[in-house]
């Protein structure tokens, strides 16, 4: 399969759906990837299951504030330099590039590197959604180390971390990112093809494209784009309503807050409260939690099916809230420790989207 | 007295106002020659209500000239886009996402140079004057007549844009116009840069249009200052208009809404403009339209102009009315299909065969147009159901646009407003002002001057109030600098959003202050 310029719009839209309110505005990632494909041609995409055991897979991602990325765009070769820096340090020649986070802007960053370096891209990712910290990936659960990792800014500064745990990688890379102007490119979780087969969520890039196309098609046919997304994700519609309150709190590093959605139509008379920290993490219907992280809580514009980021939520927005199952491995005890409600400070047992 | 003129693509509206009282108003077809058109309009006002030109304190003009020039890709200057940010940003050079046709129309050339800031004001790279001089040499060689300068995070620090402008000016001379992005847009490099390039391409046209308008007004013996209305409903003086034509882009809908609000005596309301095919719903808070939060495509270019947020729904005087035999309100539909401009041929009351919303209004006795006998046999249940449908859909659109749970009065304007009842579901009272045909010109005439701040602040613990005060004061100072009466400046919009993944509780604060124009006594 080849990824072409015309796939990037649907890819970015589908990635925003899996971004569950966070993950950054994929528009800029889409423009960057379009430019890269214009210059270098389409990118070969390889199914996770087709990776040879001894493949050298290097994931690449943007780290930092998406708000900064819309202002300080990457340099011409920043993304591919991050890959080359890690490859040099580990002394291997990469055979495949990969996406570590399918939700949001990081769905398109590896496309740019793959085009520039002429390498195939793995159709899968390390989360199946978006999470805010770099240790929050399934490879961590599989015992794969985040480091050695490279971190590269647009000025040409390059760094490599070799840390004792993946949490330390997050902490040190976060500090470096801030000094680098809050937007850096990282390449990390270097792994073999066998590792990727064992730890990745398969098919997420093509799934993003499918979701994006389903939304567009439903709109064109005047069908219900929200229902199309629910179908694609095997999820469940939790609530349809209107945002009647959004409270945001400033806490270092996270856009925390709550949004209340007053029910309309089939949800009339019920109130759903969303609790978010960059991503939507808890949905409570009339005071009872009905879905929590690690499952996906997705907010779409009811009419257009367009995914809405937590930053863009505002009074009066007509939204549909859906829940969709996360990869089963996230529901293991270790997965819940890493990304369950309690990690984010909500004293709740995880509640599954389909229960 | 003041004069407001709205030059639209089709019609030119003009009003003579004393305070908020309309002394004279007229509407005429827009002429190809701007100057002649304005002279003609002023003559008509004078004929309708004789006035002493010396008593006119200000003339306000809203115009679609600039946006039309861009859409038609004509009279645009050969333009260079210079971006300061290297080594960052080279992955997407300026003009990269522009339609080819428009790049050709502005003979667009793009240049990258070192410079730019981080979010916290540090330099990405130092400015390189020699590099800028080399670029200037190339611009000269290619006949560039206008330059747009953008720099990474220039809304945080404008120093590099200012210094680069100085260097270019000394190389290129005063005949080449220079537009700087920090004066035009907000955070979002590509969108701000695009708006700046559009502005640069319009600079020569702006000079000639502004000269034409000033000449027409002066030729009429009016020595009062001339202002142009901006997208956000505030004014700029003519010198500003020469430099920032792009700021006039969407003044039409804003002026129309503000004019309607003034006529109805309300400053916080929803304005529903019911046309032939659609109804446009906007919301005014303290007299100003809410701005759209999304990026806006203009002629295929993505920008982040301050555009009013308007929701269009498919209900108008020409909307088709249909039912499945059942006459319950939820089974009768009105629109979105419409006979449009063929209303006067196809509607029943005009001898046609199509049941339209206008026929329903006539049958219900809400309007007297065409032949009422033609709809005398309509089933009263159908008429009632269709009107209820219209009221429910419009109320729903208003409801969507509301920004708070407080009750919101509705101001109805436009030919199709006969479809609306006096009260909409949800106890929204409907107001119908007089003179609404010239609401645009009135909106231009009552416009105020404003100042705005849009910046990322690092808020130290316990200092939030101080930072907020600082932002508000800066907005107020800017409004006063732009010509507002210091005694009457107030904050009309305030918004703070925390930014994820930035250290130091980084928060984006947007704040807008406006005040009445400080008018001198006309001499």
Instruction: Report the oligomer.
Output: heterodimer
Q: Give the biggest beta sheet of chain A.
A: 7 strands, antiparallel
How many individual helices of chain B?
Answer: 13
Query: How much of the polypeptide of chain A forms β-strand, as a percent range?
Result: 25-35%
CATH architecture of the largest domain in chain A: 3-Layer(aba) Sandwich
For the termini of chain B, the CA-CA separation is 13 Å
Give the averaged pLDDT of chain A, no decimals: 93
* Alpha-beta classification of chain B: alpha/beta
Continuous helix count of chain A: 11
Mean pLDDT value of chain B: 87
Q: How many strand units of chain B?
A: 24
Distance between the termini of chain A: 36 Å
Give the fraction of residues assigned to helices of chain A.
Answer: 25-40%
- Rg over CA atoms of chain B: 25 Å
Largest interface: A-B, 46 and 46 residues
What does this structure look like?
The complex is a heterodimer of chains A (355) and B (523). With 355 residues, chain A is an alpha+beta fold. Chain A folds into two domains: 2-204, CV3147-like domain (CV3147-like fold, 3-Layer(aba) Sandwich); 224-344, Beta Barrel (CV3147-like), CATH 2.40.390. In chain A, 32% of the residues lie in helices and 28% in strands. Chain A contains eleven helices and 17 strands. In chain A, the strands form three sheets. Chain A has a seven-stranded antiparallel sheet. In chain A, strands 3, 4, 6, 7, 8 and 9 form a six-stranded mixed sheet that branches. In chain A, helix 1 (5-18) packs antiparallel against helix 2. The longest helix of chain A is centred in the middle third of the chain and has 17 residues, at 204-220. The two termini of chain A are 36 Å apart. In chain B, the strands form six sheets. In chain B, strands 11, 12, 13, 16, 19, 20 and 21 form a seven-stranded mixed sheet that branches. Chain B has a six-stranded mixed sheet with strand order 3-2-1-4-9-10, with helices on both faces. Among the domains of chain B are: 313-437, no CATH class; 448-515, no CATH class. Chain B has 13 helices and 24 strands. The radius of gyration of chain B is 25 Å and the shape is globular. With 523 residues, chain B is an alpha/beta fold. Chain B is 32% helix and 26% strand. In chain B, helix 2 (65-72) packs across helix 6 (189-219) and helix 10 (357-363) packs across helix 11. In chain B, strand 9 and strand 10 form a beta hairpin. Chain B has helices spanning 34-48, 65-72, 100-105, 129-141, 159-172, 189-219, 238-243, 251-264, 343-346, 357-363, 380-401, 439-445, 464-481, and strands spanning 2-7, 11-18, 21-29, 58-63, 79-86, 109-114, 146-151, 177-180, 226-229, 235-237, 269-274, 279-285, 288-289, 296-298, 301-303, 310-313, 319-323, 332-338, 410-413, 423-424, 428-431, 449-458, 490-498, 506-515. The chains are: A alpha+beta (355), B alpha/beta (523). Chains A and B meet through helix 2, helix 3, strand 11 and strand 12 of A and helix 11 and strand 24 of B. Chain B: InterPro entries: ATPase_NBD, Hydant_A_N, Hydantoinase_A, Oxoprolinase-like. Chain B: GO terms for molecular function: hydrolase activity. Chain B: It holds the Pfam family Hydant_A_N. Chain B: Residues 192-399 form the Hydantoinase A/oxoprolinase domain. Chain B: Residues 2-171 form the Hydantoinase/oxoprolinase N-terminal domain.
